[in-house]
Amino acid sequence: MEVRILGGHQGQSSSIGFMSLLIDGVLAIDAGGLTTALTLEEQERIEAVLITHRHFDHIKDLVGLAHNNWLLKSTHIHALDDVREALETHVFNGVLWPRMDKALGPYYPLTWHEVRPGEEFELLGYRVLPVEVSHTVPAVGYLVSKDGRSVFYTADTRETGDPGWASIRPDLLIAETTLDSRYEEFAYQVGHMTPASLGRELRTFHIRQGYYPRTLACHINPHNEADVVRELEALADELGADISPAKEGMRIHL
Predict the structure, then answer these.
(1) How far apart, in whole angstroms, are the C-alpha atoms of residue 84 and residue 166?
(2) What global pTM score does this model have?
(3) Which of 10, 60, 150, 228 could form a disulfide with 221 if both were Cys (CB 3.0 to 4.6 A apart)?
């Protein structure tokens, strides 16, 4: 299984992008930086997209993907019903963008599938488990498994003291770490984590599972990146764990 970081930040520029992961070139998770990181040919290879929640920086490039593949095929979108409702109301609504409904006939570019927390399903040969996480809107992280290897992406989430992902055993953890620890209280208020809160969640995970998975910290606010990276390095030393920031263009083979 190859996991590619298309976008790993809470920001966008010529060198960084909003959150988007790509597994084996065919399964995407979140679409914040999806089309902006891929060629048209690479976009055409994508068969399905898992969306974690409805915030703009996680859905932005669904519009571009739908447009670019419009005459080629329908891309399957798997998300909470809350996500579908928000996108159909505010984006694919016939005002900002054409409605994604079957009135388009054979040129129907997106097909919606509802996911429910805790209900595992099979998709493109992968096992996918949506795990409910605590954010400011309904959200899930995704555990994606194949051939005995797995990756879990937390999505946007705050510290809970007992994260739902402490009950699973991923080989790779991609965990949001948006702000440095000076902003601990504010981060919790807006549904995000810092290296300090990530460390506490990882310790809870270790108590449950007996190991620290390789961890990539993502969704880093670019204005806080230097401090976040410094704190992550200290946390990795403290725990004796493999913890590092996610970077656009990274390819991790599991």
Answers:
(1) 28
(2) 0.96
(3) 10
